[in-house]
Amino acid sequence: MNTVNPHVGSTSRRGFVTLVAGVGAAAAVGTGRAAGSPRRAGEDAVVLRSRAAVPDAFAVPLPIPPVADPVCRDGDTDYYEIEQREAAVAILPGAVTTVWGYDGMFPGPTIAARSGRRVVVTMRNRLPVPTVTHVHGSVTPPESDGYPTDLVPSGDERTYEYPLGQRAATLWYHDHRMDYTAPQIWRGLLGVFLVHDDEDDALSLPRGDRDVPLLLCDRSFDADGSFLYPALDPRGTGDQPGVRDEFAGGVLGDVQLVNGAPWPELAVAAGRYRFRLVNGSNARSYLLALCAGDSGPAAVFTQIGSDGGLLAAPVEHDGLAVSPGERFDVVVDFSGYPVGSHVTMLNTLGAGRMGQVMRFVVTSAARDEQDDARVPDRLSTLALPSAADAVAVRTFDFRRTEGSGGHAMWTINGRPFDVDETLAEVGLGTVERWRFRSDGHHPVHLHMAHFRVLSRDGHAPAASDAGWKDTVDLRPREVVDVLVRFDGYRGRYVLHCHNLEHEDMAMMANFDVV
């Protein structure tokens, strides 16, 4: 096995992020240090306090984003047309929020695709700024992957092609514009992308209206109901960086949204439900738990899938850690609860209202429900790599670096992102051992490639690390080893921190598959 030192190249074209100007002149907003454990929420993340009246919890029903309809189909391809545009939506009671949404929705419509069947999406940009679309978790040729400088100008369009030669999994799609990913996702450019296959369909898992996407994100609101975000360049025209320097550690909202609704409630039957959890927050991590009070037995998450699809066997969690960008496919069994029971999903890292996520209310008794769903003891056969398969070892150090004038700059191996520089050249079809080290909290995401988490600080990985992953929760002063399999396509891809403010402030690097 060879040990490879990552290449260090020329000065980054993104040196401007160290020259953030106008911080003192920017409009003041109320802030407070992140509540909850700093090991999980981000040591430097800052809560942005809403100026709008915050609604009561569990006062609105959970919305389910509509499934997008293809504009046409042929023998092996589904064709979609989606428009990115501004729209006025009701999120807070008595207020209207302007979102930047896919088809004007927040979140966007769910794309339901099938493994091995090509999806072609024509994305029309009717926003006042450039955009880039990335399907997070997809194995996609580089020209359709959403490289951060593959911009679609305002008024233009781009066609993305997704071959989907991959397993069933819960993916999501979002904007990936360089320097502006954080504010553009905050304004609404995100949605769920589901891949189905025969293996998943053959299992007796909950389906239909008991297969529910739950896209979690936090937001803050101005007095008029508009999204509040600490941007130097509020419209994202490119004249200034996307976030004010004092928020470089990450932006946390003080309103918890699920599928775009604040602290919603879902009526459930007394049976099993499949929930596809997606953390679409900019910087907020979750440690999810289910609280039933005195209504019945302790509720648990039975995990059946991770970022890359089904696990080999189910894993039960009393608490489920979900960092930005991660997805967890879980089953919750409500059959032991009487009618009227409330089961609350909590975020035990949050304080006050942010310690609550949503609530389930049981509306029918188990004897009245026909529930044939089951979670089998074996779900899938995974061909996960072993340490002996690795042909190289590389180390990637995720660290905050002070730029000129003391401004924040987030780096990988001491280098800010440079579109002309690569930190790794890897062979298609090979496996490499990548070692991630951190000085803070950095959820690390790889485009195109999937990996197995091998160890944390030399010990066994966490239970939530099981299966194929594309995002791993790298915690402060931690070393995580992963085995990356580079199946898919040749070309240039990126790895980056999925704390979006970190990403926008240069914590990203290229790798080339050759």
Describe it for me?
The protein has 514 residues and is mainly β. Helix content is 4%, strand content 40%. The protein has four helices and 35 strands. The longest helix has 6 residues. It is globular.
Keywords:
single chain, 514 residues, mainly beta, 35 strands, disordered N terminus
How do the strands and helices of this protein lay out in sequence?
Layout: E1 2-3, E2 31-33, H1 38-41, E3 46-48, E4 72-73, E5 77-89, E6 97-102, E7 111-114, E8 118-125, E9 133-136, E10 157-162, E11 169-175, H2 181-186, E12 190-196, H3 198-202, E13 211-219, E14 251-252, E15 255-258, E16 261-262, E17 265-269, E18 272-279, E19 286-291, E20 301-306, E21 309-317, E22 320-322, E23 327-333, E24 342-347, E25 356-364, E26 390-402, E27 408-412, E28 422-426, E29 431-438, E30 442-446, E31 450-456, E32 471-474, E33 479-485, E34 491-497, H4 500-504, E35 508-513
Parallel strand pairs: 1-26, 3-14, 5-8, 7-12, 13-18, 17-25, 26-29, 28-35
Antiparallel strand pairs: 2-3, 4-5, 5-6, 8-10, 9-11, 11-12, 13-15, 15-16, 18-23, 19-22, 19-24, 20-21, 20-23, 24-25, 26-27, 29-33, 30-32, 30-34, 31-33, 34-35
